[in-house]
Task: inverse folding
């Protein structure tokens, strides 16, 4: 049963992940000086991770992936009516939604980790960058990636939470965007970023699991 | 006989409108119950409340002895539910849908599943989204029946199917019903479907259960009276258990529940030239019962017994 639910979530996320992967490949290859497109991101002489645009583009790509995935996993089943099929199976709702969220967060974070590692591998290889590569250069990227999990749970909550209109329905994901932007712009200590992230993720998760058991489908 | 489904004053509002109003329903184990009503009558909401998909504002529902809102996995495994439109994952092939569904159930009848898929000439490699509506309904039925459920709840299962497919679907349902002890609740607005399958019917009108009796009893108890008048047709008609009245030129058409001596006397007191008493088929009876300008009268099995006993007494 667990395996079936995991496979289902992975299969349903594949399209969005493929699009994000395409965007990430275009971005990383462009930054590495091997652009796949005649426009857009191009290589720079700046310090990798530190003073180039990687952080910004990673935020955009992984952020959009988090929003799309969170909404797809939660709201799409309402629109297609498949919740009636899924939620009647002899397994409690918390398990079904916990699997959804675990898969979603894993995909978002895994995707971001892959982006950072690929770019780090390129930056660390001899002849690719004019400056020596240190892992400490990647710290802001890890911090941003961790905080993007707030965007994912915010999007998921937006999708599961009934509301009168889209503006108020999207409230959680919009709020999550502000939190992540504030964390990215103010660059607080690492532990503070982690603490704020854990707090907001916990609040959103509590709200999600409250709604999945109390809302009408 | 125990009841597979019990509801007690089940009520639901949407936006201030009461879509299900104090529903009291008992469906005995082993019976086939057709829940009828026009669009918006509250059938789907009732079924969704039974399945725990919608939370009632008040009242409660019990399925196989357990509260519908907190059904355990073990009890849920004994209940099959076919939602309206047969929603399933379009990207799945029939085989993937079978494997996915089977993974949740401790009991799974592969032989029965294959039998149904063969009967409907469905190939396991076919993608669900590429199937016709009729085939999607057939797959849903096969998946619902494979865990060998004791209770089947079907929300308008023949909606959108053409006549031939609908007939085939119902024939299969009848075969499935023949397994002893299985209870089926299905909603529909197609009376012919209900007539073929259900041994009891309930009719919902504006969220209220107005009829709850055996199918035959309902059909036999609704009568249409056509009264011809030479002059003016009376405006106000006072007849016991009148469902609806309608003036057509110099005639007055009345629909009544159970046509007995008391009603006959009331009709004769209007001094018509002639009185024609028509029996209605189930569809006509349903239409007359649910559309009338007057509010539909309640008709329950117990009340009808009173009507019948009154009729018997009158005959005696």
Result:
């Amino acid at each position: 049963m667990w395996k079936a639910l995991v496979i289902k979530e992975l299969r349903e996320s594949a399209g969005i992940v493929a699009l994000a992967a395409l965007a990430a490949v275009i971005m990383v290859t462009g930054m590495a000086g091997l652009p796949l497109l005649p426009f857009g991101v191009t290589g720079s002489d700046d310090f990798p991770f530190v003073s180039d645009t990687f952080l910004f583009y990673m935020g955009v790509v992984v952020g959009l992936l988090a929003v799309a995935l969170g909404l797809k996993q939660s709201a799409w089943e309402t629109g297609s009516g498949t919740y009636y099929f899924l939620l009647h199976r002899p397994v409690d709702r918390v398990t079904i939604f916990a699997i959804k969220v675990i898969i979603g967060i894993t995909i978002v974070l895994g995707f971001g980790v892959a982006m950072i590692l690929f770019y780090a591998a390129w930056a660390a290889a001899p002849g690719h960058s004019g400056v020596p590569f240190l892992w400490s250069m990647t710290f802001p990227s890890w911090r941003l990636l961790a905080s993007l999990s707030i965007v994912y749970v915010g999007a998921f909550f937006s999708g599961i939470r009934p509301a009168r209109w889209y503006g108020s329905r999207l409230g959680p994901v919009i709020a999550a965007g502000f939190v992540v932007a504030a964390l990215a712009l103010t660059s607080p200590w690492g532990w503070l970023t982690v603490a704020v992230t854990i707090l907001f993720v916990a609040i959103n998760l509590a709200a999600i699991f409250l709604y999945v058991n109390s809302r009408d489908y | 006989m125990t009841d597979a489904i019990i509801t007690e004053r089940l009520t639901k509002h949407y936006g201030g409108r009461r879509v299900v109003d104090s529903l009291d329903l008992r469906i005995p184990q082993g019976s086939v119950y057709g829940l009828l009503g026009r669009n918006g009558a509250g059938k789907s909401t009732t079924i969704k409340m039974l399945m725990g998909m919608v939370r009632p504002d008040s009242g409660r529902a019990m399925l196989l002895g357990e509260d519908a809102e907190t059904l355990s996995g073990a009890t849920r495994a004994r209940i099959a539910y076919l939602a309206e439109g047969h929603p399933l994952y379009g990207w799945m092939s029939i085989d993937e849908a079978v494997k996915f569904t089977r993974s949740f159930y401790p009991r799974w009848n592969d032989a029965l599943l294959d039998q149904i898929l063969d009967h409907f000439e469905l190939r396991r490699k076919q993608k669900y989204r590429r199937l016709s509506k009729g085939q999607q309904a057939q797959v849903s039925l096969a998946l619902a029946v494979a865990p060998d459920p004791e209770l089947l709840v079907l929300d308008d299962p023949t909606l959108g199917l053409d006549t031939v497919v609908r007939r085939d679907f119902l024939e299969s349902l009848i075969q499935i019903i023949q397994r002893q002890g299985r209870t089926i609740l299905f909603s529909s607005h197609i009376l012919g479907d209900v007539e073929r399958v259900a041994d009891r019917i309930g009719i919902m009108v504006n969220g209220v259960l107005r009829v709850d009796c055996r199918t035959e009893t309902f059909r036999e108890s609704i009568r249409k009276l056509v009264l011809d008048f030479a002059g003016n047709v009376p405006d106000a008609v006072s007849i016991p258990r009148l469902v609806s009245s309608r003036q057509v030129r110099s005639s007055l058409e009345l629909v009544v529940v159970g046509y007995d001596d008391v009603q006959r006397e009331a009709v004769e007191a209007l001094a018509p030239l002639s009185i024609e008493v028509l029996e209605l088929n189930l569809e006509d009876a349903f239409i007359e019962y649910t559309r009338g300008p007057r509010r539909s009268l309640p008709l329950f099995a117990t009340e009808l017994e009173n009507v019948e006993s009154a009729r018997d007494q009158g005959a005696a």
In short: Chain B touches chain A through 26 residues (CB under 8 Å).
